[in-house]
UniProtKB/TrEMBL annotation:
One of its GO terms (molecular function) is DNA-binding transcription factor activity. CDD domains: B3_DNA (cd10017). This is Uncharacterized protein. The keyword Nucleus applies. The keyword Nucleus applies. Keywords: DNA-binding, Nucleus, Transcription, Transcription regulation. PANTHER family: B3 DOMAIN-CONTAINING PROTEIN OS02G0455900-RELATED (PTHR31140:SF139), B3 DOMAIN-CONTAINING TRANSCRIPTION FACTOR ABI3 (PTHR31140).
DNA sequence: TTAGCATGCATCATA
DNA sequence: ATGATGCATGCTAAT
């Protein structure tokens, strides 16, 4: 079971990393093609502001580590989509990372920057939706506390 | 209406 | 046949 948001944040703080953004996984992100979850569609805004700029469609190779120090070699590229959108960003080679955290549709991929400037990515458990949310007593109290601090 | 993205799908490679 | 790759299509939320 993937770590909760709070658990991820705690780990990040321990490692001296700062959270950049996260991507909620869609069905196609998780079951891409034959290789499950090998390519993830990345949000355009966050990708362009936080990740290295892409000169060409060849993309860039990203050296990434997870919360356990495991290393992955991922490739960031883009597709040119018909007029509506200029670019659509794709992260390739993610299947191992997704499997490591047992990520399913609705869970999220967290992107962070480590203290020494490296990239860190981690899995994060799906946030319970408010409507008909069934959560444990402890979780509900926890969420209430979080909501209050956000006010 | 448009931008952004989930997903479908045509095409090419591999075996 | 099966899988990989890149583009097209259409839905939805923000403008």
């Amino acid at each position: 079971m993937p770590p909760t948001r709070d658990e991820v944040d705690a780990q990040l703080e321990e490692l001296g990393a700062r959270r950049l953004f996260e991507k909620v996984l869609s069905a196609t992100d998780v079951r891409g093609g034959a290789v499950p979850g090998d390519r993830v569609v990345m949000p355009k805004r966050n990708t362009e502001t936080h990740l290295p700029e892409l000169e060409s469609q060849a993309g860039v190779v990203l050296d990434v580590e997870d919360l356990e120090g495991q290393r992955y070699r991922l490739r960031l590229t883009y597709w040119t989509n018909s007029p509506s959108s200029g670019r659509m960003y794709i992260l390739e080679g993610t299947s191992q990372l997704l499997q490591h955290y047992r990520l399913r549709t609705g869970d999220a991929l967290v992107v962070a920057r480590t203290g020494d400037g490296g990239l860190l990515m981690a899995g994060q458990r799906k946030q319970a939706s408010r409507a008909g949310a069934t959560c444990s007593r402890a979780d509900c109290i926890n969420k209430l506390g979080l909501a209050l601090t956000l006010l």
